[in-house]
Design a protein that fits this description.
Elements: H1 2-10, H2 16-34, H3 41-64, H4 71-77, H5 85-108, H6 111-115, H7 117-147, H8 154-191, H9 193-214, H10 220-227
């Protein structure tokens, strides 16, 4: 991430806004692991690396050819360059959390862990503890985005407190939906690779549509506060 960020900043690549936020968040998660926040630090470390890899793969694909990135990321990376820094960050978060996170969790929670209630409960608790790290980053990231050139109107400045409070609510909501989608992907996995691929494709379409909707003009975070963060896979109807 550090190696990618410097040249992106030098060329004012708009993707630098999400990458910078993600790099700072990754450092914060690493510090929380070292501080003993999680029940299973080794598992959280493996999950953190796997999850980041999905974003880095999407970014690499986009830099080679924008059409190669997964659809939610094509929508996020396609945001107007002149959009506010927080718009780039929030749209990237939406793609990464909604589309990548359930896939990563299924990859790092094998079927035998899903079958063990105590292990699965520990995984879910560590998944939820990430919110503590992310919520603690909201004020600092808001300041970093302002330093990056986020243009604030009078209304924006009055809404900062609401935005920060909304961010914490949205994080909790997104975690709940992600866990439900992870369970849906696991159920599909048990039916075989084709069933899992079909559900991932469904998640990709839903996540892309969500990012596309959020790209409409207007304050992204306040719209998220009204409409909610995330997507929910519908009940599966195996044939």
């Amino acid at each position: 991430m550090e190696g990618l960020l410097a040249p992106m900043e030098a060329t004012a690549d708009p993707a630098r806004h999400f990458l910078g936020t993600y790099l700072r968040t990754t450092r914060a998660v690493g510090a929380a692991i070292d501080a003993g926040l999680f029940e299973d630090p080794a598992w959280v470390t493996a999950w953190d690396v796997d999850f980041a890899g999905l974003y880095l793969d999407a970014l690499e694909a986009h830099r080679r050819d924008p059409g190669l990135a997964p659809e939610p990321w094509r929508e996020a990376f396609g945001t107007r360059a002149e959009a506010r820094p927080e718009a780039h960050v929030l749209l990237g978060m939406n793609a990464h959390i909604n589309f990548d996170l359930p896939q990563s969790l299924v990859r790092v929670i094998p079927p035998e862990d899903f079958a063990d209630e105590s292990v699965l409960a520990a995984r879910r608790r560590d998944h939820e503890r990430i919110d503590t790290v992310l919520a603690g980053r909201v004020a600092e990231e808001d300041a970093a985005l302002q330093a990056a050139g986020s243009r604030r109107t009078v209304v924006d400045r009055l809404a900062v407190g609401l935005n920060r409070g909304s961010a914490r609510v949205l994080l909790r909501e997104s975690r709940r939906r992600v866990w439900a989608n992870t369970s849906a992907l696991h159920a599909a996995r048990l039916r075989g690779p084709a069933a899992l691929a079909a559900r991932v494709a469904q998640l990709e379409r839903l996540s892309a549509a969500r990012v596309a909707d959020l790209r409409r003009p207007g304050p992204v975070l306040l719209r998220l506060a009204v409409t909610g963060f995330g997507v929910t896979l519908p009940p599966d109807r195996p044939r």
